[in-house]
From TrEMBL, chain A:
Signal peptide: none annotated. PANTHER family: XANTHINE DEHYDROGENASE SUBUNIT C-RELATED. GO terms for molecular function: FAD binding; oxidoreductase activity. SMART domains: CO_deh_flav_C. This is Xanthine dehydrogenase family protein subunit M.
From TrEMBL, chain B:
Signal peptide: none annotated. PANTHER family: ALDEHYDE OXIDASE 1-RELATED (PTHR11908:SF132), XANTHINE DEHYDROGENASE (PTHR11908). Residues 19-137 form the Aldehyde oxidase/xanthine dehydrogenase a/b hammerhead domain. It comes from the Bacteria. Keywords: Molybdenum, Oxidoreductase. This is Xanthine dehydrogenase family protein molybdopterin-binding subunit. GO terms for molecular function: iron ion binding; oxidoreductase activity.
Length: 267, 788
């Protein structure tokens, strides 16, 4: 459980971090909370030569309101989110979700930006950013841009981030009626299936994590929805890369997806 | 006068544990100590074509690199138990090399060791060792290992069997009884493989002192003397008096630290080669890959009943994996620690068990909490509950019908089983009755009937277990193939001031010996327990010992200490009689003093102790000093028993099992410290629940371990388990001085079938009759779909 040798650089600004990313290219990894990266490094599954620590960059850890939106700095920890009054009242679904991540130690160190950039297919946040139509704000050598959540996740551990880009914030609309339903994997307590549903009158937006290699919007459910949870039967329509492991094979996972979507629609 | 036996005295050792001040092997840092890292095989079965260590040897900080081609490659660790084929053929016992030389037989097998100035440098250099392998097909399932054409683990034998063994009545007689039985219940399942998961991983430091020509081996083990014996006499050929084995605090073992591991012997060899101390501490991945696992039986069983529901015969065939090599106790586990419990708590007149034990391309299987008895209990308690359902008899009622009647083992004789053992004392009716009362069984059945009407799936599962503990009478186990006697040593040294040091060959790895042993020694001597100190884990201080496993510490180790206490009092009486100018026969000993009966003339234990060491005024012919050592060899095993009852609710949508209640009424004989017994039961129950619901080691078809981390191997957590409701009945053991039976493994033995019985009961009205463990949500849901 000892990582291979690496250099460690603490960046003090976003632009410095981008410069370092540019300089070190493939050899570098960004370190935020480190709760996915460090374990992988300890097993020597990941062996970056340079760690660029962005954890100390000021301005990336605030939670603020911007009109009808809530802007969450990428370095906010899961605990920051759980404990934020603003999020609990205007974006409750996110607080519910963060509460289910890992344990107290993980929540105190792990960050929302780090989790999204890592794009673990069983992570919790992807379902919520999808269901909320959140926007991921990123910055790279070409400047700033905003990536809609629906265009952010490209596959297992793969996102739309360019190599020199850093997530700086996540911009959520305020959500009055949303909930997150999670079926825990019994060892890791990641999501076997996680479903976020955001309801607005007779319409709903549903984000699903854990089921496919790429978290997705369950558009078939959304289209079929007219206030009844029967639409849940469409939870895996069109999904052709169902994940399978010893906790849940494809058949059971597909079933769980329907069950958890139903719960989310009924909650 | 304050007494201590039977009181929930808080554990002395916890003060240091809770402060993080325990002294574990990895905490020890010696002058000039080097560190080591292993190069381990990524393949389950492969030829080693070449090993190139040149780059590693030149790497920064590297002291040495060794492979199987070095002298250490000729040594192997032995097996401690011989179980021969039923046809008379000797057990097949392969060399278990310290480093693999030509062939790899399981993932994680070591091919080289790198010694360096720091752990980091050792790890870095280990990556530079180039090993070229030719991968070969592997077999990991014990049943498949016996199929024609299965990949062979050891080429020198015609098939993969280490042995093929049976116990009980004549097979044809049992088959005939099943043929004519009124009802036969049949089961086929796997008692799956588990990883032991001690919180402290294995850790060793070997320190060779060239001037003294002596080694000190610091090791995280459950039995330091046995390690020394095996290491010296059976592996390296070192005179035993040249090695001191020290194991200070040990952070759990559950069996996995009984065995003599290759790393222990290799480090001892390395330390002399390099002339410096060398340390290795397993990381969690290595623990999953190389600690001996538990269970891994494939079972096919039939139990026959007459029209009254009485069991008439029981026939079982099992395939029990040994792994790639024979670990220290491995052959005993599915045989003498398993088949001998097939009587259970029932009067079954005809029993036959056949065990084929194949080698597989996996790490070795050995004793894991309960060791063979959980597997026997799981079978008996599942099949009897299944039979009850099939015959439409209440599962408690079917058990009552078949119980061995109560017997105390003194005025009523012990119960002779069909499978070699004679039970000491038992009252199986008593624990079931109490367990059902604690649960409110009849009310639960009413509640269940109501719940089913509302689509709620709740169920109750009963398990009434017996186990064999207090391991073990030497002559008995010797006749069964043990290559050691399983007595224990207890040494009581009374200091001149009357303070007492007790040296025990038992070894605490979490049990609380320092507290419990002091409790009964204090009471027997009539002194305060603060005046009694317990010493263990040092082969230079403790004369000898067989260690801690098989719930033996108190029953065997405690009895040895009692023998020495009795010798102290006997000699003390001679000194007291002299000082009191009275006849020994006129003295009585109570509350820490000898008193001349009917008078107020007395002398205290402390004064007698001082006299023994300052023998100016002293009885003629009596030696000075007050210091006795005893060996205690039990006359029988002890047989704790109990009833465990689980209540579950199954989520009809997801199949997830919620364990709602757990009731345990155990009988462990007399109890020295009820808090520690409760703690042992709690821990054991949680481990058994872990097997029932969560834990499983999975190897894929190529022999890769799928569950080699806590991301994939599910351990029970606090929120997986309800409050455990415990109570006890007390049926003393008739054959040891404290009347104790042992409590360390009971929880893990009784609980697993209770939980699975409850899940099956919750789904029985849907037609579900069995579910393979662990009963994960996926398996439960699938069982419900199959029946729907």
């Amino acid at each position: 459980m000892i990582p291979a040798k690496f250099d460690y650089i603490k960046a003090s600004s976003v632009s410095e971090a981008i410069g370092l990313l540019e300089k070190h290219g493939d050899d570098a990894k960004l370190l935020s909370g480190g709760h996915s990266l460090i374990p992988a490094m300890k097993l020597r599954l990941s062996r970056p030569e340079v760690l660029i620590d962005i954890g100390g960059i000021s301005g990336l850890n605030s939670i603020s309101e911007d009109g009808n939106e809530i802007v969450i700095g990428a370095n906010c920890t899961h605990a920051d989110i759980v404990n934020s009054d603003r999020i609990n009242s205007d974006l409750n679904i996110l607080a519910q979700t963060a509460k289910h991540i890992g344990d107290i130690q993980v929540r105190n160190r792990g960050t929302i930006g780090g989790s999204l950039a890592h794009a673990d297919p069983a992570a919790d946040y992807p379902a919520v950013v999808l269901a909320c139509d959140a926007k991921i704000e990123v910055e790279g050598k070409g400047g700033k841009r905003t990536i809609p959540a629906t265009e952010f996740f490209l596959g297992i551990f793969t996102t739309a981030l360019a190599e020199d880009e850093i997530i700086t914030a996540i911009r959520f609309p305020k959500v009055a009626n949303g909930n997150y339903q999670k079926f825990f994997q019994s060892a890791s307590r990641f999501a076997v299936v996680g479903v976020a549903a955001v309801k607005d009158g007779d319409s709903v937006k549903v984000g699903v994590t854990g089921v496919s290699g790429t978290p997705y919007r369950a558009t078939a459910v959304e289209n079929a929805y007219s206030g009844s949870s029967d639409a849940a039967s469409h939870a895996v329509d069109g999904i052709d890369d169902l994940m399978s492991d010893h906790f849940a094979d494809e058949e059971y996972r597909a079933h769980l997806a329907k069950v958890m979507v139903k719960k989310a629609l009924e909650a | 006068m304050e007494t201590f036996i039977g009181k929930p005295i808080k554990r002395r050792e916890d003060a240091r544990f809770l402060k993080g001040a325990g002294k574990y092997t990895d905490d020890i840092k010696l002058m000039g100590m080097t560190h080591s890292a292993f190069v381990r095989s990524p393949y389950a079965h492969a030829k080693i074509l070449s090993i190139d260590t040149a780059a590693a040897e030149k790497a920064e900080g590297v002291v040495a690199v060794y492979t199987g081609s070095d002298a250490c490659g000729t040594f192997g660790v032995p097996c401690g138990w011989q179980v021969d084929f039923k046809n008379g053929e000797t057990m097949r016992e392969p060399l278990h090399p310290l480093l693999a030389k030509d062939k790899i037989l399981h993932v994680g097998e070591a091919v080289a060791i790198v010694i360096a100035e720091t752990l980091e440098l050792a790890r870095d250099a280990a990556e530079l060792v180039q090993v070229s392998y030719e991968a070969l097909p592997a077999v990991t399932c014990p049943k498949k290992a016996m199929e024609a054409g299965a990949p062979k683990v050891h080429d020198q034998w015609e098939d993969n069997a280490a042995f093929d063994w049976c116990i009980g009545n004549d097979r044809t007689e049992v088959e005939a009884a099943l043929e004519s039985a009124h009802h036969v219940t049949e089961m086929t399942y796997k008692n799956h493989r588990l990883a032991p998961n001690a919180i402290e991983p294995r850790s060793y430091i070997s320190d060779y002192d060239v001037n003294a020509d002596k080694w000190t081996l610091y090791t995280s083990t459950q039995n330091p003397h046995l390690i020394r014996l095996l290491l010296c006499a059976f592996v390296l050929g070192i005179p035993e008096h040249k090695v001191r084995v020290l194991s200070y605090d040990v952070g759990g073992g559950f069996g996995s630290k009984i065995y003599h591991y290759t790393e222990e012997a290799l480090l001892t060899w390395v330390s002399k080669e390099i002339g410096r101390p060398v340390k290795w501490t397993s990381d969690r991945t290595e623990a999953f890959l190389t600690d001996a696992h538990g269970r891994d039986h494939i079972v096919h069983s039939k139990m026959g009943f007459d029209e009254d529901g009485k069991i008439v015969a029981h026939l079982t065939d099992e395939y029990c994996a040994m792994g790639a090599y024979l670990s220290t106790f491995a052959p005993a586990v599915p045989t003498y620690l398993h088949g001998t419990l097939f009587q259970g708590v029932y009067t079954t007149p005809l029993i036959h068990l056949n065990v084929v034990a194949p080698f597989t391309h996996t790490v070795a299987v050995d004793a894991y909490r309960g060791a063979g008895r959980p597997e026997a209990t799981y079978l008996l308690e599942r099949i009897i509950s299944k039979a009850a359902k099939e015959m439409d008899i209440d599962p408690a009622e079917l058990r009552y019908k078949n119980f061995i009647p109560p017997f105390n083992g003194t005025s009523e004789p012990g119960f002779q089983t069909q499978v070699a053992l004679q039970y000491d004392s038992g009252n199986y009716h008593g624990v079931l009755k109490r367990g059902l009362e604690m649960l409110g069984y009849e009310d639960f059945r009413k509640e269940q009937a109501e719940a089913r009407k509302n689509g709620k799936l709740i169920g109750v599962g009963i398990s009434t277990y017996i186990e064999g503990c207090g391991i073990a009478p030497s002559a008995v186990v010797g006749s069964l193939g043990a290559r050691a006697g399983l007595y224990e040593v207890g040494h009581v040294r009374v200091q001149p001031t009357g303070k007492v040091s007790v040296f025990t060959g038992a070894h605490s790895h979490g049990q609380g010996h320092e507290t419990v042993f002091a409790q009964f020694v204090a009471d027997k001597l009539g002194i305060h327990m603060d005046d009694v100190d317990i010493v263990h884990g040092d082969t230079d201080q403790v004369a000898f010992g067989m260690g801690t496993y098989g719930s033996r510490s108190l029953a065997v180790g405690g009895s040895a200490i009692i023998k020495s206490v009795e010798k102290v009092l006997e000699k003390g009486a001679k000194i007291a009689a002299h000082k009191l100018e009275a006849a020994e026969s006129d003295l009585e000993y109570a509350e820490g003093k000898w008193t001349v009966k009917g008078t107020d003339k007395s002398i205290s234990f402390g004064d007698v102790s001082l006299t023994a060491y300052v023998p100016h005024d002293y009885p003629e012919g009596v030696e000075p000093g007050l210091d006795f050592s005893s060996f205690y060899d039990p006359t029988n095993f002890t047989y704790p028993f109990g009833t465990h009852i689980a209540v579950v609710e199954v989520d009809p949508d997801t199949g997830k099992v919620d364990l709602q209640r757990f009731v345990a009424c155990d009988d462990v004989g007399n109890v020295m410290n009820p808090m520690i017994v409760d703690g042992q039961i709690h821990g054991g129950v949680v481990q058994g629940v872990g097997q029932a619901l969560l834990e499983e080691v999975i190897y894929d078809g190529e022999g890769q371990m799928v569950t080699g981390s806590y991301m994939d191997y599910a351990m029970p957590r606090a929120d997986d388990v309800p409050n455990i409701e415990t109570d006890r009945t007390t049926t003393p053991c008739p054959h040891n001085p404290l009347g104790v039976k042992g409590a360390g493994e009971a929880g893990a033995i009784g609980s697993t079938p209770a939980v699975v019985n409850a899940v099956v009961d919750a789904l029985s009205h849907l037609g579900v009759t069995d579910i393979q463990m662990p009963v994960t949500p996926k398996r439960v849901w699938k069982a419900m779909q199959t029946q729907a």
